[in-house]
């Protein structure tokens, strides 16, 4: 029987690349995204690979919509084996005191509350069925401090704390929870962020020992490894995938 994965933010970037990579491992995919266009595109891509896939539209910052994507997954596929808790938005790129409190609410609502709600409802289903594997998307901004990303960094450090503490509570019940901390990776989100802040792109590439950004496919490979049985004894880790970036800070 095929494994079933929920991927949030699967309509683009890291989520979409991971949907494709997991489909190549014969995993059925639940594509969750606020964007219908991106979500439907991903469903088409993974169905071509030969697995079953559904799109569930949800804004992850709304808890009832999170509960709905979990309920609909169980109704359709009967279980959840893997969860890539990934939907997120970038920070505004402004210094903190130039950020409005509405911007803070929006970033925290999607990046942190959305991830916590997803964890809450998905883990409940997994634990009823004897366990499962979860990967949360943190960031370099979740492991080091940088300027212009104070709120974003707060959400991504929060993701790291959530990951480690879930393991302390539920590893004994069969749950594996890890986080990834990608450096700048060439996805649509990063492209638009750097188009608005070109000096930051130059700065970022200069600061990466490998002198290039990462690719969504490289991240998808890591997430697939962490979710599948190949990583059975890896739990509570925060894996950096950043060309050496944060290790040289
Ligand atoms: N790309 C990078 O350089 C990088 C680096 C570190 C961490 N990240 C993190 O990776 C994750 C994915 O980002 P990406 O680079 O693939 O970006 P992306 O913009 O390409 O994809 C993000 C997807 O999330 C969806 N989304 C946004 N808000 C949502 C919401 N409220 N509810 C549901 N879906 C929503 C978007 O529609 C989009 O399809 C984010 O959590 C981001 O913070 C990205």
Automatic annotation (TrEMBL):
GO biological process, one term: bile acid metabolic process
CDD domains membership: SDR_c
Key words of the record: Oxidoreductase
E.C. no: 1.1.1.47
Top EC class, one word: oxidoreductase
Phylogenetic classification of the source organism: Bacteria, Bacillati, Bacillota, Bacilli, Bacillales
Family to which this protein belongs: Belongs to the short-chain dehydrogenases/reductases (SDR) family.
The protein's name in its UniProt record: Glucose 1-dehydrogenase
GO molecular function, one term: quinone binding
InterPro entries linked: NAD(P)-bd_dom_sf, SDR_fam
Pfam families: adh_short_C2 (PF13561)
Top-level lineage group: Bacteria
């Amino acid at each position: 029987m095929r494994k079933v994965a929920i991927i949030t933010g699967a309509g683009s970037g890291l989520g979409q690349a991971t949907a494709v990579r997991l489909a190549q491992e014969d995993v059925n995919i639940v594509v969750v995204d606020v964007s219908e266009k991106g979500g439907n595109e991903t469903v088409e891509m993974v169905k071509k690979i030969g697995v079953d896939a559904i799109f569930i539209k949800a804004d992850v910052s709304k808890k009832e919509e999170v509960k709905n994507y979990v309920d609909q997954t169980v109704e359709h596929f009967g279980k959840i084996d893997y969860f890539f808790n990934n939907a997120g938005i970038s920070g505004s790129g402004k210094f903190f005191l130039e950020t409005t409190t509405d911007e803070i609410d929006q970033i925290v609502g999607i990046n942190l509350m959305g991830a916590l709600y997803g964890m809450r409802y998905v883990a409940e289903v997994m634990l009823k069925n004897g366990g499962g594997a979860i990967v949360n998307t943190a960031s370099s901004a979740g492991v080091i401090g940088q300027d212009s990303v104070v709120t974003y960094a707060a959400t991504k450090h929060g993701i790291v704390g959530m990951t480690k503490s879930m393991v302390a509570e539920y590893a004994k019940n069969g749950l594996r929870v890890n986080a990834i901390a990608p450096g700048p990776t060439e996805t649509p989100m990063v492209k638009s962020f750097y188009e608005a802040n070109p000096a930051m792109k130059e700065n970022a590439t200069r600061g990466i020992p490998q002198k290039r950004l990462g690719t969504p496919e490289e991240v998808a490979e890591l997430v697939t490894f962490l979710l599948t049985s190949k990583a059975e004894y890896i739990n509570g880790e925060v894996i950096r995938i950043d060309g050496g970036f944060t290790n040289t800070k």
